[in-house]
Specification:
With 256 residues, the chain is α/β, with parallel strands linked by helices. It is 37% helix and 26% strand.
Length: 256
């Protein structure tokens, strides 16, 4: 009985969020106000629940709170997993005009909406977009399989196990991004659905000049072994020289 009640509540919340998202999109003509900015959600890949989350002020709330509270203003930023540009806009708003923001997004369809939102909020200055996927299973420049998520926040490298749509994307490593765009110290903002584990274990030297990081850590597989969130966090703080400043679930804020 309790399980059935919980299921009904979950379904009701799902339906309500979807309906509100659809209504909000119509009311604001797909330019939804969010924390003092506006974001275009016209792309059909943006799920109505994401639109509702923007309207309620909940979208990527931990990442945005950490950006606003802790992100250093005076050094360049590399953002991995930029999606439709919501967090990108808050990063650009936070850092100094002369600082660069390098945004990396694998899904080419989301990059169009990313560009729209940066322009909509007049945050195009010193912003650069790299339409590639962070991967250590393939050589840089080679292509890998990317699975389109049900929502714009759920795309990932790998194969679709449930009939989801797959596309080919070019791969790149963080060190290549740094070599091309970054000259000094930098901050990292990272939400790449599990690929951060490969980065942390296989290319830790790429973080030698990273002074600050906001990262969503996912349970992931590495060399056939399941790597839990807390295990990855222990590696970051005990072996890579970072100190934990703040945490909200899997989203952590770190500094050297």
């Amino acid at each position: 009985m309790q399980a059935m009640l919980s299921l009904k509540i979950a379904v009701a919340k799902f339906v309500t969020a979807r309906l509100i998202g659809e209504l909000v999109a119509v009311a604001y003509r797909n330019k939804i106000p969010f924390r003092g900015l506006r974001f275009s959600t016209a792309d059909p890949q943006i799920h109505p629940r994401v639109k509702a989350s923007l309207f309620w002020g909940l979208y990527e709330s931990a990442e945005i709170r950490f950006v606003n509270a802790y992100l250093p203003r005076s050094i360049d930023v590399v953002e991995l997993g930029s999606s439709i540009g919501v967090v990108s806009c808050f990063i650009r708003k936070r850092i100094a005009p002369e600082c660069k923001l390098i945004c990396v997004e694998a899904d080419p369809r989301l990059t169009k909406q990313w560009m729209v939102n940066l322009r909509l909020n007049q945050f195009e200055n010193n912003v650069f977009l790299v339409n590639k996927a962070i991967s250590y299973s393939y050589e840089p420049g080679k292509k890998s399989t990317f699975v389109i998520g049900m929502k714009n926040t759920e795309g990932r490298l790998g194969r679709a196990e449930d009939g989801g749509e797959e596309i080919s994307v070019e791969c790149v490593r963080l060190s290549d991004i740094i070599a091309e765009h970054i000259e000094h110290d930098f901050s990292l903002v990272c939400d790449i659905e599990g690929s951060e584990v490969e980065l942390l274990y296989r290319e830790p030297e790429a973080l030698n000049h990273c002074r600050f990081a906001i990262m969503e850590i996912h349970k992931s597989m590495l060399n056939g072994k399941v790597i839990q969130v807390d295990e990855t966090l222990r590696r970051i703080t005990s072996e890579l020289g970072f100190k934990l400043i703040d945490r909200n679930g899997p989203v952590v804020c770190l500094a050297k």
